[in-house]
Specification:
heterodimer, A: about 110 residues, mainly beta, seven-stranded mixed β-sheet, 10 strands, B: about 120 residues, 11 strands
Amino acid sequence: EIVLTQSPGTLSLSPGERATLSCRASQSVSSSYLAWYQQKPGQAPRLLIYGASSRAPGIPDKFSGSGSGTDFTLTISRLEPEDFAVYYCQHYGNSPLYTFGQGTKLEIK
Amino acid sequence: EVQLVESGGGLVKPGGSLRLSCGASGFIFTNAWMSWVRQAPGKGLEWVGLIKSKVVGGTTDYAAPVKGRFTISRDDSKNTLYLQMNSLETEDTALYYCASVFTIRNPAFDYWGQGTPVTVSS
């Protein structure tokens, strides 16, 4: 079973800064099956990145994904107030079919 | 506009049953792979299960904690997804989301409903 570990648990930054969120898999995974989601309080998750680096339709280019193998990164450039939320990585695999990381809370410093 | 609307949540006693529904619109439901994801209060996201389109057999897959207790089904004539939950446990208390799979090659969840809450308590 693949385990996704996100770090840091909480990231405190100021608007205008750049955020770098990490997702580490317990074993090598296919980049095609790595996704990132944003969830704001009281809202459903929103797909940001699929295939490790492709932005979902309508997602601004300040969000970018990268990585391969076991290490993946979500970068948010020029943070705006609406970007402060919880971010999850997700992998599609075998057993279980889907795994989520535990989440990184991005909070305003 | 794609819409997913869950319903059927509520309060149920341990050992009880509940059936959730997810009505879909704005896309070709018949071709879609669909999933259920839950989120316990204050916790992260947990995948529950998936059902493929009938075109590829309509097969299902479940997370270990719910396997044998939960059943996912679909009625393509009604554009509706279901989650039958039996032998409910307090640990099943969560907000339950339905979500659509983006593509088979990129099987992330592109659309989500707003969720329906399930509370299992005596």
